[in-house]
Amino acid sequence: MALAAATADAWGISAPSFLSAYVLIAVAIGVGSRRARRALADPGATGPVSDLTTRPHDVAHLAGGSELAVWSALCALHVRGRITATDGSVQAIGRMDADADPLERAVHATATTGAGRRRLLFHRSVQTVLSATEERLVAAGFLLSEDRRRRIRRVGLWMLAVALVGLGRVLAEISQARPVGPLLAALAAVTVVALAQLTLAPRRSRSGDRALAALRVEHRALAPEHAPDLRAHGPTGAALGIGLFGTGALATAAPGFARAVDPRDARRRRTGATGLAVGGGGDGG
Protein backbone atom coordinates (compact mmCIF):
# COMPACT_ATOMS: atom_id res chain seq x y z
CA MET A 1 0.00 0.00 0.00
CA ALA A 2 2.79 2.38 0.91
CA LEU A 3 4.64 1.39 -2.27
CA ALA A 4 1.55 2.17 -4.37
CA ALA A 5 1.22 5.60 -2.76
CA ALA A 6 4.88 6.32 -3.38
CA THR A 7 4.62 5.43 -7.05
CA ALA A 8 1.26 7.15 -7.71
CA ASP A 9 1.34 9.79 -10.41
CA ALA A 10 1.39 13.37 -9.19
CA TRP A 11 -2.08 14.95 -9.45
CA GLY A 12 -3.36 11.62 -10.77
CA ILE A 13 -1.86 12.29 -14.23
CA SER A 14 1.15 10.50 -15.65
CA ALA A 15 4.19 12.65 -16.44
CA PRO A 16 4.05 12.05 -20.24
CA SER A 17 0.32 12.81 -20.38
CA PHE A 18 0.74 15.99 -18.34
CA LEU A 19 3.66 17.17 -20.47
CA SER A 20 1.72 16.67 -23.70
CA ALA A 21 -1.32 18.48 -22.34
CA TYR A 22 0.83 21.23 -20.86
CA VAL A 23 2.59 21.92 -24.15
CA LEU A 24 -0.70 21.98 -26.06
CA ILE A 25 -2.25 24.37 -23.55
CA ALA A 26 0.83 26.59 -23.57
CA VAL A 27 0.78 26.78 -27.37
CA ALA A 28 -2.93 27.56 -27.42
CA ILE A 29 -2.58 30.28 -24.80
CA GLY A 30 0.48 31.63 -26.58
CA VAL A 31 -1.37 31.93 -29.88
CA GLY A 32 -4.39 33.46 -28.19
CA SER A 33 -2.34 35.99 -26.24
CA ARG A 34 -0.43 36.99 -29.38
CA ARG A 35 -3.69 37.63 -31.21
CA ALA A 36 -5.05 39.60 -28.27
CA ARG A 37 -1.92 41.76 -28.15
CA ARG A 38 -2.08 42.39 -31.89
CA ALA A 39 -5.73 43.40 -31.63
CA LEU A 40 -4.97 45.82 -28.80
CA ALA A 41 -2.09 47.26 -30.84
CA ASP A 42 -4.44 48.19 -33.67
CA PRO A 43 -6.91 50.78 -32.36
CA GLY A 44 -7.33 52.13 -35.89
CA ALA A 45 -5.97 55.39 -37.25
CA THR A 46 -8.28 58.39 -37.13
CA GLY A 47 -6.19 60.51 -39.47
CA PRO A 48 -4.99 59.86 -43.04
CA VAL A 49 -1.36 59.02 -43.71
CA SER A 50 -1.06 62.13 -45.89
CA ASP A 51 -1.48 64.28 -42.77
CA LEU A 52 1.85 62.98 -41.47
CA THR A 53 3.84 64.38 -44.38
CA THR A 54 2.68 67.89 -43.57
CA ARG A 55 4.55 67.53 -40.26
CA PRO A 56 7.82 65.75 -41.10
CA HIS A 57 9.04 65.92 -37.52
CA ASP A 58 5.95 63.94 -36.51
CA VAL A 59 7.10 61.23 -38.92
CA ALA A 60 10.50 61.20 -37.21
CA HIS A 61 8.85 61.01 -33.78
CA LEU A 62 6.70 58.12 -34.98
CA ALA A 63 9.69 56.25 -36.41
CA GLY A 64 12.28 56.84 -33.72
CA GLY A 65 10.88 58.84 -30.85
CA SER A 66 11.94 62.21 -29.48
CA GLU A 67 15.62 61.92 -30.34
CA LEU A 68 15.00 61.29 -34.04
CA ALA A 69 12.49 64.15 -34.10
CA VAL A 70 15.20 66.51 -32.80
CA TRP A 71 17.56 65.19 -35.48
CA SER A 72 14.98 65.93 -38.18
CA ALA A 73 14.55 69.46 -36.82
CA LEU A 74 18.32 69.98 -36.88
CA CYS A 75 18.43 68.75 -40.47
CA ALA A 76 15.67 71.16 -41.53
CA LEU A 77 17.40 74.05 -39.75
CA HIS A 78 20.66 73.15 -41.47
CA VAL A 79 18.99 73.27 -44.89
CA ARG A 80 17.38 76.60 -43.99
CA GLY A 81 20.79 77.94 -42.99
CA ARG A 82 19.58 78.67 -39.47
CA ILE A 83 22.03 76.56 -37.52
CA THR A 84 25.69 75.53 -37.51
CA ALA A 85 27.45 72.77 -35.62
CA THR A 86 30.94 72.31 -34.22
CA ASP A 87 32.30 69.42 -32.17
CA GLY A 88 28.90 68.22 -30.95
CA SER A 89 27.45 71.67 -30.22
CA VAL A 90 24.93 73.58 -32.31
CA GLN A 91 24.62 77.34 -32.69
CA ALA A 92 21.55 79.16 -33.96
CA ILE A 93 21.91 81.68 -36.78
CA GLY A 94 19.55 84.51 -37.66
CA ARG A 95 15.87 84.57 -36.79
CA MET A 96 13.06 82.13 -37.42
CA ASP A 97 9.89 83.07 -39.27
CA ALA A 98 6.77 83.46 -37.17
CA ASP A 99 5.07 80.57 -38.98
CA ALA A 100 8.04 78.19 -38.64
CA ASP A 101 7.53 74.69 -37.31
CA PRO A 102 7.19 74.71 -33.48
CA LEU A 103 9.92 72.12 -32.95
CA GLU A 104 12.34 73.97 -35.20
CA ARG A 105 11.58 77.20 -33.34
CA ALA A 106 12.15 75.52 -29.98
CA VAL A 107 15.45 73.95 -31.07
CA HIS A 108 16.59 77.24 -32.66
CA ALA A 109 15.73 79.19 -29.52
CA THR A 110 17.54 76.68 -27.31
CA ALA A 111 20.65 76.94 -29.48
CA THR A 112 20.71 80.75 -29.48
CA THR A 113 23.71 80.81 -27.14
CA GLY A 114 24.99 77.40 -28.25
CA ALA A 115 23.97 74.03 -26.89
CA GLY A 116 25.17 70.44 -26.99
CA ARG A 117 23.18 68.32 -29.38
CA ARG A 118 22.42 65.74 -26.71
CA ARG A 119 21.16 68.41 -24.29
CA LEU A 120 18.63 69.81 -26.77
CA LEU A 121 16.31 66.92 -26.10
CA PHE A 122 15.97 67.80 -22.41
CA HIS A 123 15.32 71.52 -22.71
CA ARG A 124 11.90 72.49 -21.40
CA SER A 125 10.68 74.25 -24.55
CA VAL A 126 11.75 71.33 -26.74
CA GLN A 127 10.16 68.83 -24.36
CA THR A 128 6.89 70.77 -24.46
CA VAL A 129 6.71 70.54 -28.24
CA LEU A 130 7.70 66.87 -28.23
CA SER A 131 4.99 66.08 -25.67
CA ALA A 132 2.41 67.78 -27.91
CA THR A 133 3.67 65.73 -30.84
CA GLU A 134 3.30 62.52 -28.84
CA GLU A 135 -0.27 63.41 -27.89
CA ARG A 136 -1.10 64.26 -31.51
CA LEU A 137 0.18 60.92 -32.77
CA VAL A 138 -1.67 59.02 -30.06
CA ALA A 139 -4.90 60.86 -30.87
CA ALA A 140 -4.43 60.03 -34.57
CA GLY A 141 -4.01 56.34 -33.75
CA PHE A 142 -0.40 56.06 -34.91
CA LEU A 143 1.12 55.72 -31.43
CA LEU A 144 -0.27 53.74 -28.51
CA SER A 145 -1.26 55.44 -25.28
CA GLU A 146 0.33 54.31 -22.03
CA ASP A 147 -3.02 52.89 -20.90
CA ARG A 148 -3.28 50.72 -24.01
CA ARG A 149 0.33 49.59 -23.64
CA ARG A 150 -0.42 48.54 -20.04
CA ARG A 151 -3.40 46.53 -21.32
CA ILE A 152 -1.15 44.84 -23.86
CA ARG A 153 1.37 43.93 -21.18
CA ARG A 154 -1.34 42.56 -18.91
CA VAL A 155 -2.15 39.93 -21.53
CA GLY A 156 1.08 38.33 -20.37
CA LEU A 157 -0.75 37.26 -17.20
CA TRP A 158 -2.30 34.45 -19.26
CA MET A 159 1.09 32.89 -19.91
CA LEU A 160 2.18 33.61 -16.36
CA ALA A 161 -0.74 31.48 -15.12
CA VAL A 162 0.43 28.65 -17.39
CA ALA A 163 3.94 29.04 -15.99
CA LEU A 164 2.67 28.81 -12.42
CA VAL A 165 0.80 25.58 -13.21
CA GLY A 166 3.99 24.18 -14.69
CA LEU A 167 5.98 25.23 -11.63
CA GLY A 168 3.49 23.50 -9.36
CA ARG A 169 3.83 20.29 -11.33
CA VAL A 170 7.62 20.48 -11.30
CA LEU A 171 7.61 20.84 -7.52
CA ALA A 172 5.21 17.92 -7.22
CA GLU A 173 7.45 15.72 -9.36
CA ILE A 174 10.56 16.75 -7.43
CA SER A 175 8.85 15.90 -4.15
CA GLN A 176 8.48 12.33 -5.46
CA ALA A 177 12.10 12.24 -6.69
CA ARG A 178 11.10 11.95 -10.34
CA PRO A 179 12.96 13.38 -13.35
CA VAL A 180 11.64 16.74 -14.55
CA GLY A 181 13.99 17.57 -17.43
CA PRO A 182 11.46 17.83 -20.32
CA LEU A 183 8.86 19.56 -18.16
CA LEU A 184 11.46 21.99 -16.85
CA ALA A 185 12.43 22.89 -20.43
CA ALA A 186 8.79 23.54 -21.29
CA LEU A 187 8.36 25.61 -18.15
CA ALA A 188 11.44 27.69 -19.01
CA ALA A 189 10.06 28.46 -22.48
CA VAL A 190 6.66 29.44 -21.10
CA THR A 191 8.28 31.63 -18.44
CA VAL A 192 10.41 33.46 -21.00
CA VAL A 193 7.34 34.19 -23.14
CA ALA A 194 5.35 35.33 -20.10
CA LEU A 195 8.09 37.69 -18.92
CA ALA A 196 8.52 39.11 -22.42
CA GLN A 197 4.80 39.79 -22.73
CA LEU A 198 4.61 41.32 -19.27
CA THR A 199 7.50 43.71 -19.89
CA LEU A 200 7.29 44.55 -23.59
CA ALA A 201 4.63 46.45 -25.49
CA PRO A 202 4.81 48.13 -28.89
CA ARG A 203 5.18 51.87 -28.99
CA ARG A 204 3.61 52.27 -32.40
CA SER A 205 0.21 50.98 -33.34
CA ARG A 206 -0.11 48.64 -36.29
CA SER A 207 -1.61 51.58 -38.16
CA GLY A 208 1.57 53.51 -37.41
CA ASP A 209 3.70 50.66 -38.74
CA ARG A 210 1.65 50.52 -41.93
CA ALA A 211 1.85 54.28 -42.36
CA LEU A 212 5.63 54.28 -42.07
CA ALA A 213 5.94 51.37 -44.50
CA ALA A 214 3.76 53.17 -47.05
CA LEU A 215 5.67 56.45 -46.69
CA ARG A 216 9.04 54.71 -47.08
CA VAL A 217 7.89 53.24 -50.37
CA GLU A 218 6.42 56.54 -51.55
CA HIS A 219 9.53 58.56 -50.64
CA ARG A 220 12.18 56.00 -51.51
CA ALA A 221 14.19 58.70 -53.29
CA LEU A 222 15.11 60.10 -49.85
CA ALA A 223 16.78 56.85 -48.76
CA PRO A 224 20.55 57.02 -48.08
CA GLU A 225 21.41 54.63 -50.91
CA HIS A 226 20.07 57.19 -53.37
CA ALA A 227 22.38 59.90 -51.96
CA PRO A 228 19.61 62.54 -51.87
CA ASP A 229 20.42 66.23 -52.24
CA LEU A 230 18.90 67.68 -49.07
CA ARG A 231 18.83 71.24 -50.35
CA ALA A 232 17.11 70.17 -53.55
CA HIS A 233 14.36 68.50 -51.49
CA GLY A 234 14.06 71.52 -49.21
CA PRO A 235 13.73 71.59 -45.41
CA THR A 236 10.51 69.58 -45.37
CA GLY A 237 11.83 66.87 -47.68
CA ALA A 238 15.14 66.72 -45.83
CA ALA A 239 13.41 66.32 -42.47
CA LEU A 240 11.10 63.70 -43.95
CA GLY A 241 14.12 61.74 -45.15
CA ILE A 242 15.53 61.71 -41.61
CA GLY A 243 12.20 60.63 -40.20
CA LEU A 244 11.73 57.78 -42.66
CA PHE A 245 15.29 56.52 -43.06
CA GLY A 246 17.11 57.65 -39.93
CA THR A 247 20.13 59.84 -39.46
CA GLY A 248 22.04 57.68 -41.90
CA ALA A 249 20.31 59.78 -44.57
CA LEU A 250 21.91 62.90 -43.09
CA ALA A 251 25.32 61.24 -42.76
CA THR A 252 25.15 60.34 -46.46
CA ALA A 253 23.76 63.61 -47.81
CA ALA A 254 25.56 66.05 -45.48
CA PRO A 255 28.47 64.16 -43.90
CA GLY A 256 30.25 67.32 -42.75
CA PHE A 257 27.26 68.56 -40.79
CA ALA A 258 26.57 65.07 -39.41
CA ARG A 259 30.16 64.79 -38.15
CA ALA A 260 30.02 68.24 -36.60
CA VAL A 261 26.77 67.47 -34.79
CA ASP A 262 27.87 64.03 -33.56
CA PRO A 263 31.66 63.64 -33.80
CA ARG A 264 31.65 60.53 -31.63
CA ASP A 265 29.51 58.75 -34.19
CA ALA A 266 31.94 59.81 -36.90
CA ARG A 267 34.73 58.15 -34.92
CA ARG A 268 32.66 54.99 -34.60
CA ARG A 269 32.19 54.99 -38.36
CA ARG A 270 35.94 55.24 -38.93
CA THR A 271 36.54 52.25 -36.65
CA GLY A 272 33.89 50.20 -38.45
CA ALA A 273 31.11 50.41 -35.86
CA THR A 274 27.47 50.65 -36.80
CA GLY A 275 26.55 54.11 -38.01
CA LEU A 276 23.64 56.34 -37.30
CA ALA A 277 20.39 54.56 -37.93
CA VAL A 278 16.66 54.90 -37.61
CA GLY A 279 15.63 55.15 -33.98
CA GLY A 280 13.90 51.99 -32.80
CA GLY A 281 10.18 51.98 -32.45
CA GLY A 282 10.33 49.57 -29.55
CA ASP A 283 7.55 47.57 -31.06
CA GLY A 284 8.08 44.59 -28.81
CA GLY A 285 4.96 42.97 -30.20
TrEMBL record:
Membrane-crossing segments per the record: 12-31, 155-174, 180-200
Name assigned to this protein: Uncharacterized protein (TIGR04222 family)
Location of region: Disordered: 262-285
Keywords of the record: Membrane, Transmembrane, Transmembrane helix
